[in-house]
């Protein structure tokens, strides 16, 4: 049985302008440059330049035109036809630039049959019937957040370098195909972590090459002799042994190889006494062998003659300078571009608006031009709003962490969460989060991500809250000053911090130690 129900719902949706502002707010300076270039390419009504400068030029040209009109007054210069009037409007448009403004009235344009036959604006219109609604980055297609940021090419990859070395090897066609498959299986760290049986299946299914594991392992040993040393290893133990094989085979190298091949588990756990007893090594011999192993490269893929990755440079979004205790905060010059609406498109819209005759072609042209003008205006407004929000948020952070920015001392950081800044500037927490998520500031003490200044509070004996950054800084200092023969456990670190007035539990000490990438006491032990 069918039923017909009526419901009244109240929903709230973001406007296209708000969506565009949110997308622009969360991207850093490097991506903003690419985003602006992309918008300039797809929207001809948007161009680089200063609107104020353009207004001054327009005023000067109006004065010159007024002087010329006083000197020349010919009644026969009136045009009789509407076609000639429209042509004259376009001719004047090439000589003067009218004010940059978007008329609110939308009239049907002039019927110019000659121009309609020569120019078909329908080819340039998209499927959107609402003028200015769609913007670049909205609607179907690849999401902006998933788009890879373009980076400068830093040279050939490690794969290319290995393929070049493979080309110089004396191999038949089948062995060369196996070698290419193995090189393609090397990960970013320089290891082949897949089983040889899986690689044999790939060769059979993708290239129709039948090869057993013995054949593949033979080619693998050849690739392991390529540069950099230790490449194409299947685990860390094999990687380190491959590097030792290229050293001069003396007593020290022999001891290091025995440690890795016979007592690798004890070595990873730093059970040096067991190693010494099992291999019957003297204290000096063990110490020198361990020192040699620690100099080896555990990730040959990242630091070979040609790295696999690309170098990314941090571009700060803010620049903070200290002028005798007075802070000057500015946006990065790349973050504040000068954009304006193209005068030619504004003039074109005004010309269509003043025209007398109307037809379908002209109406489509007006729709197209108005759409581009609205989109350009919205984009410029979103950029300006982004700049204001960034400066407002960063200015609040500077005031909140004033003592830190004066001296650069981590112990001066105050506990600060997103809600503190959001309350002070009168914005939502999500807005502050978008600003702090991927932005950085250049100070006299280095470049810091904005997330660095946000931290939770830890209760102290004095009754005041201390920043977790401050506690981590003190914890790092204690560990750096400990005896490497007898490193401090988490329990001892907890007692030392409590003695300094920080009420902190052992599990919190372990949490902060892991966040600082500091291993447990057993793994910090040195000979």
Automatic annotation (TrEMBL):
Residues 367-525 form the RNA polymerase sigma factor 54 DNA-binding domain. Gene3D superfamilies: Homeodomain-like, RNA polymerase sigma-54 factor, core-binding domain. It comes from the Bacteria. Belongs to the sigma-54 factor family. Residues 47-99, 117-130 have a biased composition (Acidic residues). The gene is rpoN. Residues 38-151 are annotated as: Disordered. Residues 152-345 form the RNA polymerase sigma factor 54 core-binding domain. This is RNA polymerase factor sigma-54. The keyword Nucleotidyltransferase applies. Residues 102-116 have a biased composition (Basic and acidic residues). Keywords: DNA-binding, DNA-directed RNA polymerase, Nucleotidyltransferase, Sigma factor, Transcription, Transcription regulation, Transferase.
């Amino acid at each position: 049985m069918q039923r017909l129900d009526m419901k009244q719902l109240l929903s709230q949706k973001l406007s296209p302008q708000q969506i565009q502002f949110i997308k622009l707010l969360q991207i850093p300076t490097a991506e903003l440059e690419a985003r602006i270039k992309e918008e300039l390419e797809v929207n001809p009504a948007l161009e680089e330049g200063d609107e104020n400068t353009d207004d001054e030029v327009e005023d000067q040209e109006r004065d010159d035109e007024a002087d010329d009109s006083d000197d020349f007054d010919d009644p026969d210069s009136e045009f009789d036809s509407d076609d000639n009037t429209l042509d004259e409007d376009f001719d004047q448009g090439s000589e003067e630039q009218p004010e940059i403004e978007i008329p609110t009235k939308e009239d049907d344009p002039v019927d110019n049959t000659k121009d309609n036959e020569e120019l078909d604006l329908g080819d340039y219109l998209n499927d959107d019937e609402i003028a200015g609604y769609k913007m670049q980055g909205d609607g179907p297609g690849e999401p902006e957040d998933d788009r890879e940021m373009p980076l400068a090419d830093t040279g050939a990859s490690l794969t290319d370098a290995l393929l070049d070395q493979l080309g110089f090897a004396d191999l038949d066609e089948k062995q060369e195909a196996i070698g290419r498959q193995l090189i393609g299986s090397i990960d970013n760290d320089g290891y082949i972590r897949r089983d040889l049986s899986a690689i044999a299946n790939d060769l059979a299914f993708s290239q129709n090459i039948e090869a057993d594991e013995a054949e593949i392992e033979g080619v693998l040993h050849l690739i392991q002799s390529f540069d950099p040393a230790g490449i194409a290893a299947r685990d860390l133990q094999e990687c380190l042994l491959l590097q030792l094989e290229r050293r001069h085979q003396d007593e020290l190298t022999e001891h290091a190889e025995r440690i890795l091949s016979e007592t690798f588990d004890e070595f990873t756990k730093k059970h040096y006494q067991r190693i010494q007893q099992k291999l019957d090594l003297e204290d000096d011999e063990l110490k020198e062998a361990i020192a040699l192993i620690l100099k080896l490269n555990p990730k040959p893929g990242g630091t070979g003659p040609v790295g696999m990755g690309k170098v990314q440079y941090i571009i700060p979004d803010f620049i903070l300078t200290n002028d005798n205790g007075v802070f000057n905060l500015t946006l990065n010059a790349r973050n504040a571009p000068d954009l304006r609406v193209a005068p030619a498109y504004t003039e074109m819209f005004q010309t269509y608006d003043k025209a007398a005759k109307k037809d379908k072609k002209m109406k489509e042209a007006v729709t197209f031009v108005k759409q581009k003008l609205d989109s350009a205006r919205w984009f410029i407004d979103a950029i300006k709003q982004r700049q204001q929000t960034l400066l407002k948020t960063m200015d609040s952070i500077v005031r909140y962490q004033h003592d830190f920015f004066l001296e650069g001392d981590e112990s001066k950081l105050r506990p600060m969460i997103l809600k503190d800044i959001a309350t002070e500037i009168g914005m939502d927490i999500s807005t502050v989060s978008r600003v702090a998520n991927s932005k950085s500031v250049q100070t006299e003490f280095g470049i810091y991500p904005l997330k660095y200044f946000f931290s939770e509070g830890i209760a102290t004996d004095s009754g005041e809250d201390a920043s977790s950054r401050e506690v981590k800084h003190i914890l790092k200092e204690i560990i750096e000053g400990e005896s490497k023969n007898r490193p401090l456990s988490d329990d001892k670190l907890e007692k030392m911090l409590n003695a300094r007035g920080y009420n902190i539990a052992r599990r919190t000490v372990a949490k902060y130690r892991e966040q600082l990438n500091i291993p447990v006491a057993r793994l910090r032990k040195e000979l």
